[in-house]
UniProtKB/TrEMBL annotation:
CDD domains: DHOase_IIa. Zn(2+) 2 binds at D172, H199, H252. GO terms for cellular component: cytoplasm. InterPro entries: Amidohydro_3, DHOase, DHOase/Allantoinase_Hydrolase, DHOase_cat, Dihydroorotase_CS, Metal-dep_hydrolase_composite, Metal_Hydrolase. This is Dihydroorotase. GO terms for biological process: 'de novo' UMP biosynthetic process; purine nucleobase catabolic process. One of its GO terms (molecular function) is dihydroorotase activity. The gene is pyrC. Binds 2 Zn(2+) ions per subunit. It comes from Bilifractor porci.
Amino acid sequence: MSSILIKNGRILDPAVGRDEVGDLFLKDGVIAELPGSPAGTKDETRVRGKKNSGTVSLPEDTVVLDASGCYVMPGLIDMHVHLRDPGQTWKEDVSSGSRAAAAGGFTTIVAMPNTRPTIDSPDRVDYVRNKAAHVAPVHVLQAGSVTKGLKGEELSDIRGMAAHGIPAISEDGRSVMNARLCREAMEIAAELHLPFLDHCEDAALVNGGCVNEDSFSRKEHLKGISNSVEDVIAARDILLAGETGAQLHLCHCSTKLSYQMLKRAKEQGFSVSGEVCPHHFTLTSADRIPGDTNYKMNPPLRTGEDREALLQGLADGTFEVISTDHAPHTAEEKQQPMDRAPFGIVGLETCVPLTVTQLVKKGILTPLQMAEKLSGNPARLLHLEDRGSLEAGKAADVTIINPEEEYCIDAGKFYSRGRNTPFDGMKVSGRVRVTICGGKIVYRDGRLYG
Ligand SMILES: NC(=O)N[C@@H](CC(=O)O)C(=O)O
Ligand SMILES: [Zn+2]
Ligand SMILES: [Zn+2]
């Protein structure tokens, strides 16, 4: 493996609050001290000085990357991805999904267990892990389901799956509607220090709704999904997490009340966190094009008031994570009427430009906060100690982004098998230039390697 020197980038390390122009050196799969800098010192002025002094001697095979004008962040981590493998590999599989991740700047992704069959046992965890080890250019972590077959009747073998390396449990796609069973799962999760990634949706309240319940749904005579569908389960599960001590992470938060409840729970010292997806911080139900199922996802696009609360929560730190909820479906599947088409949109290859365009350029997040929500915090919440930071000794997982490059999103160029996005053709700013995983360049300027 060659060494890599990243020169003149804006080094953004959320773990230590570092934001300065400098160089980064990667060697033997880890972030290393810059050659010539006295070992163990973190005197950045001296390291920077060396750069210009010409005395640095690099290993001969060093690849030098000029990152002038670019953000250099610890490799991005997506806590919420659907790889559809096993069982629905026409939509996506471990290979295509992990390649899309690399192209999107992600070096670690968490795959949700709502596959066919469900990932609810150690051997099914092993299936994804073994496949990923052979085909994935980035780290793929497989979450385990809370109940067998996502049926909500009997707990999965959570302990067994924990022994096989799941980073978290999740019933994503639905909620565990039986509160007693959910509480039992949280007790086990607390004991094993496994985060509980919570999809909040009351199965009875949702009642076949397909878009947000508002004036638009009424006008189109579509069944609506009220905010309470999400909020009642978020409230219930925050209470259960408080009682059990489980580490609760609210997935794809979309409502104003989920923001307020999360904020309050944190003030009370509960171990809770929350994520917002780019589509929810970018769009509202008013942006939906009637009949276009690429605007159909779960939870649905909400009102402007909800979106404002999400932006507020991202800015004030209540939501510490941005995740994609990458949910690929085929064009045929999506070309059904609104009430029949599947929920979900792809997100791995649009997350960085949407975050830069909607949040950083508009002053809602600083570039350092962007690195925090896309890497530092996910690493902390998933207990990935070697990631989410650019300090010496950490994994050589790095993402280089040019925040100034303007272009139009082209779904036809996605590495994902899914093309289902409402953002095709949208003008954005911010392009992933290089993704480095484990000290290897896996993506550079439009091309995948390895
Ligand atoms: N978000 C979605 O709209 N769809 C997800 C399920 C989920 O994340 O709840 C999917 O698996 O397709
Ligand atoms: Zn979900
Ligand atoms: Zn999901």
